[in-house]
Every structure is written in structure tokens, then in C-alpha cells.
Amino acid sequence: MGKRRSIYLKDFSHKNPIPAAAVVDGLLMSGIIYGLDPATGKAAEGLEEQTRLMFQHLSRILEEAGMGPENVLKLDVLLVDRSQRGPLNAEWEAMFPDPDDRPVRQAMQADLDNGKLIQCNVTAYAAP
Predict the structure, then answer these.
(1) pLDDT digits (tens, 9 = 90+) for 5-54
(2) Which of helix, strand or coil describes residue 67?
(3) Looking at the DSSP assignment, which residues form a beta bridge with residue 96?
(4) Which residues pair with 28 in a beta bridge?
(5) What confidence category does residue 87 fall into, taking pLDDT thresholds of 50, 70 and 90?
(6) C-alpha distances in angstroms, 59 versus 10, 114, 115, 118?
């Protein structure tokens, strides 16, 4: 196994000493990614803004790891109300516009904390 590399982002950090993601041998796995508003340090207002920021943070994590949307294998999403997938689908199609070249996604309903309406974690791979 290769050396693990921790991915940290300015303006998107955990209160505990935990990175946003870690990479080993080209395999990236993240912790939770949510619609954190960097200006307030809290979850943004509304599902649309939280979803937009969640995908923005996801993009930044991938970029910091030297990856892009093409490297995403799976996105696990938790929503307070799973029936409200419109904003998720809009951002999903913007990031992955080709229906023949999309990763898998799982969306589940969950009781999220601290004003979060949506959160995700990602698995991505890029050959080292």
C-alpha cells in the first residue's frame, strides 16, 4: 500500500483534526461534504444553496487531489427529505452531463444535524 495523503481545504474544514478526504494509490475517499457557507462557517440557507456549495466543495476536493469529475466512481448522498432531489439532480447533471459517462449515486433519507439539508461523501479513483 502506498503512502496516504490527506486533503485539507481552506474554508471547508472539520472542527476536529480530520481531513476532507484521503488518497492512497489513486483511491480517494472523503468524509462528509455539505453546503458549508465559508462566510458564516455554518450550513447555508436553503436546499438549493446547500447543494450548490456541496458540489463546489466536492469539485475543490477533487482538484486538490489532482482529480476531476471523470474520476468519481460513486457519490453517496443523504437528504433530510429524499423526495426533494430536484436541486441534487440539477447539480448532478451539470457536473456529469453525459448520461453514458456518469458515476453511480445513492440517495438516502436521514436526520441531519446543524441545519444541514443535504450531505455527501465521494469515492474517486485515478491511477497513480
Answers:
(1) 999 998 888 778 999 999 999 999 999 999 999 999 999 999 999 999 99
(2) coil
(3) none
(4) 23, 124
(5) very high
(6) 14, 23, 22, 16
In degrees rounded to 5, what are phi and psi of residue 35?
A: -80, 55
Helical residues (DSSP H) of 24-120, grouped into ranges: 47-64, 86-95
Average pLDDT, the chain: 96
Q: How many whole angstroms separate alpha carbon 109 and alpha carbon 111?
A: 7
Kindly report the CA angle at 30 between 20 and 60, in degrees rounded to 5? 60
C-alpha grid cell, residue 84: 426533494
Q: With residue 105 as reference, give the H or E element that holds it.
A: strand 104-109
The DSSP symbol for 109 reads: E
Q: Tell the burial category of 77 from Cβ atoms under 10 Å away from its Cβ (0-12, 13-18, 19+).
A: buried
What pTM did the predictor assign? 0.96
